[in-house]
Amino acid sequence: MEMKPFEETVYLSSPTMHGDEIKYIQEAYDTNWMSTIGANINEAEKMICQKVGCADAVALSAGTAALHLAIKLAGERLYGQARVGHGTLEGHKVFCSDMTFDATVNPIAYEGGEAVFIDTEYDTWNMNPKALEKAFEIYPEVRLVVIAHLYGTPGKMDEIRAICDKHRALIVEDAAESLGATYKGQQTGVLGDYGIISFNGNKIITGSAGGMFLTNNLEDAHKVRKWSTQAREDAPWYQHEELGYNYRMSNVVAGVVRGQIPYLEEHISQKKAIYERYKEGFKDLPVTMNPFDDKNSEPNFWLSCILIDKDAMCKQVRGEKDALYASEPGKSCPTEILDAISRLNAQGRPIWKPMHMQPVYRMNPFITESGNGRARSNAYINEGAVPDVGMDIFERGLCLPSDNKMTKEQQDVIIEAVKRCFV
Ligand SMILES: *Cc1c(COP(=O)(O)O)cnc(C)c1O
Q: What residues make up the catalytic site (predicted)?
């Protein structure tokens, strides 16, 4: 029997407002600080510093802008200032998470660098330290690693830090999805040399847009603040010695961020409850939840995901832009489950398609635990050989509706719909 769709859409992850946000927006309006200067920006920066435990935070227009400036800062430190019209990473390779949102990777290209994608590990769905080690064997000259904490789950930072220290490489930490998650008691975003968070509309807390650069180095903070406001020098006129950007956060957006920050913990505990209800609901199904290292880390549970056991996968074929599957008793696949969720008027999503499989990055190197992963990926496409870890998780995994406003009853219906896919 067909299940009745929800009257209102159950989202993957949507903004959850609490009332204080409008108060601070109103304050910006009433005081006429309707620009990229104002009390909301200053307060939001201070509050985030306190929350994550860093010396300074710079409020920017987006997480992507924060990543761009973090990566540019790393590029300058490593290779010196670039001539205008040239990126700081030109002629240089940068190691980067492979299974992530493209915003993690694109700023490397903005700065003229070449991303080398590092395969994923099953333990946390983040960068595999063994593959990173392998990448340094192949490209010992690399000095920069960009790592994302996927879906709010911290990666293996100690292992990655040790490898980077050994090779004198800097770390840019993309904590866009993981604000509030901790690794060995420390917040993500301050575990690397440069860190960033995002306040995009679907993140754990939001400003409707926005992001922040996080640092313990006040000089770095000063530089990012300056770059983000068109790189004006301290002079009576517009004096420019460096290339600038218009990346500063608006004081109106900062009002939303300021209003949201006190609710971070509440959102995390709601997301955690959602994760645990899914886990319980699926205990008899051939699936596992997105995993984390429960000894060393506490995720923020931004998105709940499942991975279908290999022997419980029905046939599924994905082209560049479409997907087909053949239903089988006792088996299912992400495409079938995402269809079922969508018929309920709820939102699921495929796992981030690995960057090495994206047409835009088709020429970039890709390294797995055993070396050059390109050879293996091509064999997988052409001959159906074992895929790399990232492609395997992409093939068998999916993100479930994880909105913190989803009711228990709605979640029960979603759990039932997923169960029926395996009947
Ligand atoms: C959302 C996100 C970003 C980008 O943040 P924006 O604020 O949307 O620019 C970067 N990296 C990851 C992993 C993200 O999920």
A: 203
- Which residue in the list 203, 226, 271, 331 is annotated as catalytic? 203
pLDDT greater than 90 at residue 376: no
- For residues 368 and 227, membership in a common domain is answered with no
Q: Is the CB of 198 under 6 A from ligand 1?
A: yes
Is 271 labeled as catalytic in the residue annotation? no
Angle between helices 129-138 and 157-166 (to 10 degrees): 20
Q: What is the pTM of this model?
A: 0.96
Q: State the Cα angle at 324 between 319 and 328, rounded to 5°.
A: 140
Residues 72 and 138 in one domain: yes
Please indicate whether residue 177, judged by its CB atom, sits closer than 6 Å to ligand 1.
yes
Pocket lining: 257 vs ligand 1, CB cutoff 6 Å:
no
Structural domains counted in the chain: 2
Domain span holding position 186: 20-262
Phi, psi angles (nearest 5°) of residue 406: -65, 130
Across the range 213-217, mean pLDDT stands at: 97
User: Does the pLDDT of residue 315 top 90, yes or no?
Assistant: yes
**Do 258 and 335 share a domain, yes or no?**
no
pLDDT band at 372 (very low <50, low <70, confident <90, very high): confident
Nearest CA to ligand 1 atom 7: 63
Query: How much is the pLDDT for 357?
Result: 95
- Region 314-333 average pLDDT: 93
Return the best residue to mutate from 200, 202, 206 for the ligand 1 pocket (most ligand atoms within 8 A of CB).
200
Asked if residue 300 has its Cβ within 6 Å of ligand 1, the reply is no
Question: 199 CA distance to ligand 1 centroid (A)?
Answer: 8
CATH number of the domain to which 373 belongs: 3.90.1150.10
Q: Indicate the pairing of strand 194-198 with strand 182-183.
A: unpaired
